Amino acid sequence: MVDRAIAIDYDKCVGCRICEIVCSLRNTGEINPAKSRIRVVRFEPEGNALSFPFMCMKCVEAPCKSICPTGAISDDPITGARLIDTDKCIGCSACVYACPFGAISIDRVPGVAFTCNLCGGDPTCVQFCPRDAIQYLDRNEVSIRLARSRLENYVTFANTGTES
After folding, report:
1. Do both 51 and 125 map to the same domain?
2. What is the pLDDT of residue 143?
3. Is the pLDDT of residue 65 over 60?
4. Model-level pTM greater than 0.90?
5. Residue 43 and residue 8 share a domain
6. How far is Cα 148 from Cα 151, in angstroms, rounded to an integer?
7. Residues in CB range of 52: below 8 A, 6 or more apart
8. In which domain, by residue range, is 40 found?
9. CA atoms within 13 A on the CB side of 35
10. Domain count within the chain
11. Using an 8 Å Cβ cutoff, are 89 and 108 in contact?
């Protein structure tokens, strides 16, 4: 049974993109952030730089999996990661368009889709994040942290009228 999940602390992320580099290196053998399974998006509202790492969210009702015409996308029974069978994938991009998070891409060279595979249960992005912004935790701990974060935002908003 899947009992662990990736948790991202956006307040700790400084946008170094080391996660992208080590991910692409582990999964493709080359340093190419375009082939990384994790992406860091940077926003600069009002002069404040904010970085947001994102990856496959392991949706319960996965649109990428549902729309795949060849059944190339399955779930790893141990990690819960979405796995793509490259022998079945035809590179049609239906999964790319179906993903609400933009967390699945097509590698044009072999012509197949790719997404976070959790590195077989030992995510490289977690190992190399210098600020511990990315962690691989017990799924219950992730839920508790999310709830706590929502509560802290609510309290801050209630007290100041602005979100933290």
Report:
1. yes
2. 67
3. yes
4. no
5. yes
6. 5
7. 8, 10, 13, 40, 41, 42, 43
8. 1-55+121-159
9. 16
10. 2
11. no
N-term to C-term CA, the chain: 35
101 and 135, same domain (yes or no): no
Question: H/E element holding 114?
Answer: strand 112-114
Please indicate, yes or no, whether residues 68 and 46 belong to a single structural domain of this protein. Answer: no
> In this predicted structure, what is the pLDDT of residue 5?
87
Q: Which residues contact 101 (CB under 8 A, 6 or more apart)?
A: 54, 56, 57
Q: Which two tokens stand for residue 12?
A: 């700790």
Q: Tell the burial category of 77 from Cβ atoms under 10 Å away from its Cβ (0-12, 13-18, 19+).
A: exposed
The first and second tokens of residue 71, run together, are 């059944």
State residue 162's pLDDT score: 63
* Token code pair at residue 146: 């999310």
Residue 102 CB-half CA count within 13 A: 7
